[in-house]
Design a protein that fits this description.
By secondary structure, this protein is an all-beta fold. It is built from no helices and 6 strands. The protein is 0% helix and 70% strand.
């Protein structure tokens, strides 16, 4: 993996629990790490479903190995949140390919 190919900036976000003034429990996303990555694949799929017309964006990023990354985290890329759907290790802790799907409309 060449560092020059890592031309995209992504944020790894982790869910955190907060307690409001009224004692209500809420969940927010907090940035855990900011990394450089290479965008390998970008797919956009238009389909008709039970909820009507939907557009799904699937991205695959290649980045250096990050031991604590899990499927419970999410990525923020160009201001859009993406849910992590797959993690593939490259070599022996050299890098990883992360597949994610856009969250929301």
């Amino acid at each position: 993996m060449r560092a020059g190919n890592l031309d995209r900036l992504i944020e790894i976000q982790r869910r955190s629990t907060t307690i409001g003034l009224g004692g209500t429990v809420g969940q927010t996303w907090a940035t855990f790490a900011t990394m450089r990555a290479q965008l390998l694949k970008s797919d956009i799929d238009d389909r008709e479903g039970a909820r009507g017309h939907a557009t799904d964006a699937m991205l695959t990023f290649r980045m250096y190995y990050f031991a604590s990354l899990s499927l419970n985290d999410r990525l923020l890329y160009e201001g859009q949140p993406f849910e992590i759907t797959g993690i593939t290790e490259i070599g022996r802790r050299v890098g990883m390919d992360v597949t994610c799907e856009r969250v929301g409309p």
